Protein: Phosphoribosylformimino-5-aminoimidazole carboxamide ribotide isomerase
Organism: Ureibacillus terrenus
Amino acid sequence: MEFRPCIDLHEGKVKQIVGSTLGQKNVIENFISEKDASYYAELFKQDGLTGGHVIMLGPSNEEQAKLALTAYPGGLQIGGGITADNAKKWIDAGASHVIVTSYIFHDGKLDMERLKKLVEAIGKEHIVLDLSCRKRDGKWYVVTDKWTKFSDFEVNRENLSFLEQYCDEFLIHAVDVEGKKSGMQEELVQDLAKWTTIPTTYAGGIRSLEDLERFKTLSGGKLHVTIGSALDIFGGNLPYQKVVQYCNS
């Protein structure tokens, strides 16, 4: 189990927001940093954390994203508006991987042509598929377009096994609890631990060291974890350094 940190960018600033409000008129912002993205990238580099993700939530974030990648080349993944046409630009800029959702899931369906084009452009070893999901009718489905639209793609053992042929890792937000510091989606954690065979990072709702211990138990230590709004470096109460120490131990 590794701690995978995050740098979320919105309107050119490092922020923590409730992701499910992104498509709405009033975005709920948990935290707006006075520091730029390079500060956090250097912190994660100093602590030897790899596989963290920089997410560009909307336009006007490329400058900050490049600052982070320059500060920690090879140590961060990048997501937000990634396509087969621009993916190599971000790998060349220092990202270890690109993260994609809406590009390969559009009009509610998985677009295999786009996914294969992405693999051809940069290789599966540089691809993270973000399968952030919500529950409907007792099943998990990928949601797209800033988490506002259900796709018809079910997150289950069979489908994850199929997608593992085309990527290096999965990043999976539990959309209904992400950013709310309300506890994790325990059933999803257990399902992912059973279903995935490549590195998979879970995000959503973890707010304490007790939650981290519960996460480790539920996942059998098999999944990686990211924490955002709950961390003290993003205005929360959970000490970042204690999370680093816990996951390192």
The mean pLDDT is 93.
